[in-house]
């Protein structure tokens, strides 16, 4: 009798985790109990780009995947993003955050991972400041076109080059020139390479199964392999 009860509870738990909890959400990949779709993103298709591309092809431009126990609705279509997140951005003030994120940041800071009134104020301040810098105006277009001209000149002069690196430097130069007033000329490219490597390492480190579980399932931190991540 006890064995039958335990088996019933296990079957019920699996049914809830893999099917029942998804019933009111957009379609998406079946989540595993506890882990959700973290394995697909961090183990099978690290750091996750191919997983999202495959899910878009299978489920359409709006789908749900699970970060452990947390559902995440993905909008992977420009027009839909424009109609929802951009034109109706105020509805997205309640944003997903985790206890681990707050611990690492030392509080509810930044733009990407703040929520409510704090996020709304940060968004308003950021947009206002960027407009003062020229975003959406002719000045911004001039900065972009100036960088495009410089990029084309480099392609003309260099006999051998890595196109991806040159495009990365050009985009980085536009952003850095806007914020800090200088481009990544030859003597500054070591700085750009260091920043790019730090960002790349950051993405690789957080896009792992163990970190995903530690962020979404706090109880896993009592397990040695997750403790301290």
From TrEMBL:
GO terms for biological process: organic acid metabolic process; xenobiotic metabolic process. Signal peptide: none annotated. The keyword Metal-binding applies. Keywords: Iron, Metal-binding, Monooxygenase, Oxidoreductase. The keyword Nucleotidyltransferase does not apply. GO terms for molecular function: heme binding; iron ion binding; oxidoreductase activity, acting on paired donors, with incorporation or reduction of molecular oxygen, reduced flavin or flavoprotein as one donor, and incorporation of one atom of oxygen. It comes from the Eukaryota. One of its GO terms (cellular component) is cytoplasm. Belongs to the cytochrome P450 family. This is Cytochrome P450. It comes from Mesorhabditis belari.
């Amino acid at each position: 009798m006890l064995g039958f009860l335990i088996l019933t509870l296990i079957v019920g738990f699996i049914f809830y985790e893999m099917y029942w909890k998804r019933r009111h959400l957009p379609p998406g990949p079946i989540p595993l109990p506890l882990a959700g779709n973290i394995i697909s993103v961090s183990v099978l298709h690290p750091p996750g780009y191919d997983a999202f591309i495959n899910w878009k092809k299978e489920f359409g431009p709006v789908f749900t995947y699970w970060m452990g126990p947390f559902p995440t609705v993905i909008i992977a279509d420009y027009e839909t993003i424009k109609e929802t997140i951009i034109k109706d951005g105020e509805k997205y003030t309640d944003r997903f955050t985790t206890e681990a994120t707050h611990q690492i940041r030392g509080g509810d800071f930044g733009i990407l991972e703040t929520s409510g009134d704090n996020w709304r104020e940060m968004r308003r301040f950021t947009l206002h400041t960027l407009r003062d810098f020229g975003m959406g105006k002719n000045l911004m277009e001039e900065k972009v076109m100036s960088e495009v001209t410089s990029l084309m000149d480099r392609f003309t002069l260099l006999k051998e080059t890595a196109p991806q690196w040159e495009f990365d430097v050009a985009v980085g130069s536009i952003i850095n020139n806007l914020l800090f007033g200088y481009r990544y000329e030859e003597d500054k490219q070591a700085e750009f390479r260091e920043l790019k490597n730090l960002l790349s390492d950051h993405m690789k480190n957080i896009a792992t199964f163990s970190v995903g579980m530690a962020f979404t399932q706090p109880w896993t931190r009592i397990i040695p392999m997750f403790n301290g991540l």
